Amino acid sequence: MGHLPDDLLAGLESGPWHSAAAWRAVLASDDDATVTEIVEIEDEPAGFVRSGPVDAPRGACRGIIQSIYLLRDYRAKGLGSALIDRARARLRDAVLTPVAIEAFVFNAPALALYRRLGARDIDRRTAFEHGGVVVEEIVLGWPEPPSGV
């Protein structure tokens, strides 16, 4: 709370990743290189991971985990780690390694997860600026493909 400007937050749809329509839109935008994988628990969507080739320079990385999201009830249960491992394995199979991922500097839980899974900081940069507030992100990367996946 308090990391993004109030007027920016006011303009966002409430809980945009909590709707089936938003998830269908993400799936519809997939192409041959970019893939979204949805994980279901008891036939209900619990989260997704989206990965593909990098769209802008991120060090030596050729692949990127573009987004990962889990509904609140499914967090801290190992699903995020499993989704990241599967995305990295898919990128490895597509010869898109090393792999990058990004997180806002204030997203301590995400940064801790990525680092625990072996990602190392590559860069820190401005994600965007809004109303005079600069929001930074950290680019992390895995130099090696996942093992045992």
Please provide a written account of the structure.
By secondary structure, the chain is of the alpha+beta class. It has one domain: 3-Layer(aba) Sandwich (Aminopeptidase), CATH 3.40.630. The protein contains 4 helices and 6 strands, in the order ααβββαβαββ. β1 and β2 form a beta hairpin. The longest helix has 15 residues. The radius of gyration is 16 Å and the shape is globular. The mean pLDDT is 80.
Strand content: 25-35%
Provide a count of the helices.
4
Fourth-level CATH superfamily: Gcn5-related N-acetyltransferase (GNAT)
Strand order of the largest sheet: 1-2-3-4-6-5
How many distinct beta strands? 6
Shape: globular
- Largest beta-sheet characterization: 6 strands, mixed
Could you please say which CATH topology applies here? Aminopeptidase
Kindly state the mean pLDDT as a whole number? Answer: 80
What is the end-to-end distance? 36 Å
Q: Output the helix-strand order.
A: HHEEEHEHEE
Unreliable stretches = none
CATH class bucket = Alpha Beta
Percent of residues in helical segments? 25-40%
**SSE class:** alpha+beta
Q: Architecture, CATH level 2?
A: 3-Layer(aba) Sandwich
Radius of gyration equals 16 Å
Structural domain tally: 1
